[in-house]
Amino acid sequence: MKKLVMVLALGAMLGSCGGGDAAEVDVNSLDSSCACAEAQIEVLTEAKDLHDLRVKEGDKWDEAKGKEMDAKMETLEKKYMEIMDKMFEVVKVGEDCPETGKAIMKLVTEWNARTGLKVKKLWPAPGYFTKYK
Fold first, then answer.
1. Has residue 18 been placed in a domain?
2. Distance between CA 121 and CA 96 in Å, rounded?
3. pLDDT in tens, 65-90
C-alpha cells in the first residue's frame, strides 16, 4: 500500500512540475475525440499560462525573449489545429465526454476574458491564440 501511495504522490509531483510540453503531444497516438479533447485542454492550459506570464513579466523581456515566447505561442496554436484535424478523423458516433467538454468551455471562456475577446468560441480559429498581444 505504501508503494502505491508513493507512486501516486510522485506522479502528482511530476505532473505539477510541468513535466510535459503540450507542443510535444503525439497527435498520431490520439485515437478518440475524447483523447483529442484532453490534448486540447493540455494545449489551451499551456497557452493560457504563457499568456499570463507575458502579461505579468512581458514588459521586462528583451526582444529575443519576446520572439521566443511568440514562437512558443504559435507552436501551441499549430498543435491545437493539428489536434482539431485529428479529432475530425477519429470521432465516433455516440462518443461523449461531457466533463472534458465543460473543461474546454471553461478554459476558452477564461481565455476570452483574459484577452478581451468578446466572442465565445468553442474551437478557436487560426490566429486565436496569438491575439493576446
1. no
2. 19
3. 889 988 999 999 999 999 989 988 88
Cα distances from 60 to residues 55, 57, 63, 121, in angstroms, run: 10, 6, 10, 31
- What's the domain range around 49? 25-132
Tell whether 71 is covered by a domain. Answer: yes
Quote the CA–CA distance of 37 and 24 in Å, as a whole number. Answer: 15
Q: How far apart are CA 27 and CA 33, in angstroms?
A: 12
C-beta separation of 74 from 51 below 8 A: no
Rounded to two decimals, the pTM is 0.68
Residue ranges of the chain with per-residue pLDDT less than 70: 1-20, 117-133
Cell numbers standing for residue 54: 507575458
